Amino acid sequence: MKVGLIYFGGQYNHLILKNVKYLGVEINVVNPSIGIDQMKGYDCVIFSGGPQSVKEELHRMGNSPIFVKELSIPKLGICLGHQLIAYVLGGRVDRADNPEFGLVKITVDDNDTILRGFPKEFSAWESHNDEVKEPPPGFRVIAGSQTTRIQSMVSSDNTTFTVQFHPEVKHTENGIQVFKNFLDVCKK
Amino acid sequence: MFEPEKFIEEIEPQVKSIVGNNRVVAAVSGGVDSTTAAALMYRILGDRVIPVMLDTGFLREDEAESVRLMLRDIMPLKVVDMSQKFLSSLEGLKDAEEKRKKFRDLFYTAISEIIKTHESKFLVQGTIAADWIETQGGIKTQHNVLVQLGINTEQTWGFSLVEPLADLYKNEVRELARYLGLPKEISERQPFPGPGLLVRCVGALTREKLKITRKSNKVVESLLEPLKPSQYFAAVFESNFGIDQRLSEILGDEIHVYETKATGVKGDVRSYGKMASFSLRNDYKEIREVSRKITSGDFTRALMRVWKGEGNYTVAIRAVNTEDFMTADILELDTSVLTKIAERLAMIPGVGEVVYDVTTKPPATIEFE
């Protein structure tokens, strides 16, 4: 099995790479400017964080909108990746009313799919100026925080998952579980 | 999990094929990364490795000598005193990035001379993942990141780089050091940035401020060391401030805004912004909430005022917990502990205020610049 990590220049991308590698799964960094035909051979894909704002700077994110729409493999979006998936599939993304940096308490509504194994409330670490205001059609919101309503979403066919927080950093409680849950879906 | 044995198996042939039969110079700052990198290379290449420490003038008190003694039985460290050159070239520079970039130029010009003297063409350094990630992301220019920025070291300075730890984080470097059998005082050593006290002397560099920074660091280190935070130090800047009316109203407190700026990271973007302080309180739930409200706007640092007296300089105490230095949480220090540290800092001539930095990473970085 091989995971593609779409790289947008975020601070924690290399940590995602190491987390997945240490779980014993092959993972390659993918430059989003490559063509979709070069994405063959990947069993699933992770869209990582980065400094861009999807509303104004989608043109700086290569072919990633095409990957989101056309790749029929399991997808996980983290931070900017979460916002990208929401925006491209018809949700609304804008400046956050309360940007979150550092410690945030996440409240879980449904601890299934990507949040399986998480308690009703846990501490996560965040760093974002934008937020998803409205989910795209067919997506279910499964977690939120006091300052950001949409912290995690799942598509109706249970193949696309997103989180606004950073599961790859050590300060997020049991964050590695997000990757375990995602890789379980990829294996199927 | 990280496996030191496997790591060495992978890195040894790589290093040997790069270096061949040549001599290599290893730059040692005395921190855990560069010391472990040098020791690993010494293990692989023996006395073809020449470990060198540059005294840049920004080391802590007696540091050069204590590092040389600490390494006595592992490798023979050469200490080269460049402090006057560095100090006179950097004096008066104010902008954090300008200071870091000038330091980088001075550092590599000096080290390339040493490499030539030893008829070598290679430099070993302890660059780790957090260094190149922050530099590439434009958060701050780590002085030891060159190739990842597209700088051709061979053309510019006449040497090639060997960076055996570039894929590792701090906690993994420590595991490697333990595996190599390095003494505890190295594997568990407190991290110390390459540009040293230069980046803790926040804003314009002056000899007076540097002197206060050195003394303050000694006090803070000696009092916090028993608590074993991942990183702890003091940063010093001019106390000049104004009052932010809007924030003061919102928070029901007097919010001071300093003229000096500090470095932060918000949403993967560098943020070189102002610092604000609020009055002393006890409850960390409340302290975290105030810190959050201050930094969700334009500010990169929230500081809690511990003590105020006469004198031109503010000393900020920093103490954080982190394994990999990519994110960091603050230590919830009691006001009694903070007051005790402040009493000692207040005895340093020139110190007029002591604050406690209560900003996590993000939105702040661990160091101030």
Automatic annotation (TrEMBL), chain A:
Active-site residues (renumbered): 79, 166, 168
Tell me the InterPro entries matching this sequence. Class_I_gatase-like, GATASE, GMP_synth_GATase, GMP_synthase_A
Q: How does it assemble?
A: Heterodimer composed of a glutamine amidotransferase subunit (A) and a GMP-binding subunit (B).
Against Gene3D superfamilies, the record matches this protein to: 3.40.50.880
A Pfam family reported for this protein in Swiss-Prot or TrEMBL: GATase
Q: Which CDD domains match?
A: GATase1_GMP_Synthase
Q: Which UniProt keywords apply?
A: ATP-binding, Glutamine amidotransferase, GMP biosynthesis, Ligase, Nucleotide-binding, Purine biosynthesis
Q: Which NCBIfam families match?
A: guaA_Nterm, PRK00758.1
Q: Which reaction does it catalyse?
A: XMP + L-glutamine + ATP + H2O = GMP + L-glutamate + AMP + diphosphate + 2 H(+)
Source organism of this protein record: Metallosphaera hakonensis JCM 8857 = DSM 7519
Report the HAMAP family cross-referenced here: GMP_synthase_A
**Boundaries of every Glutamine amidotransferase domain copy:** 5-183
Which chain positions lie within coiled-coil regions? Answer: none
Tell me its EC number(s), please. Answer: 6.3.5.2
Q: In which pathway does it act?
A: Purine metabolism; GMP biosynthesis; GMP from XMP (L-Gln route): step 1/1
Outline what the protein does: Catalyzes the synthesis of GMP from XMP.
Q: What class of enzyme is it?
A: ligase
Q: List the GO cellular component terms.
A: cytosol
Q: Name one GO molecular function term.
A: ATP binding
Query: Which named protein is this?
Result: GMP synthase [glutamine-hydrolyzing] subunit A
Automatic annotation (TrEMBL), chain B:
Keywords, alphabetical: ATP-binding, GMP biosynthesis, Ligase, Nucleotide-binding, Purine biosynthesis
Q: Which reaction does it catalyse?
A: XMP + L-glutamine + ATP + H2O = GMP + L-glutamate + AMP + diphosphate + 2 H(+)
GO cellular component term, pick one = cytosol
> Where does the source fall among the domains of life?
Archaea
In this chain the GMPS ATP-PPase domain maps to 2-189
Q: Name one GO molecular function term.
A: GMP synthase activity
Quick one: which pathway?
Purine metabolism; GMP biosynthesis; GMP from XMP (L-Gln route): step 1/1
Q: PROSITE patterns, from UniProt?
A: GMPS_ATP_PPASE
List positions binding ATP: 29-35
Q: What is its EC number?
A: 6.3.5.2
Q: Spell out the CDD domains in the cross-references.
A: GMP_synthase_C (cd01997)
**Briefly, what is this protein's role?**
Catalyzes the synthesis of GMP from XMP.
Q: What name is this protein filed under?
A: GMP synthase (glutamine-hydrolyzing)
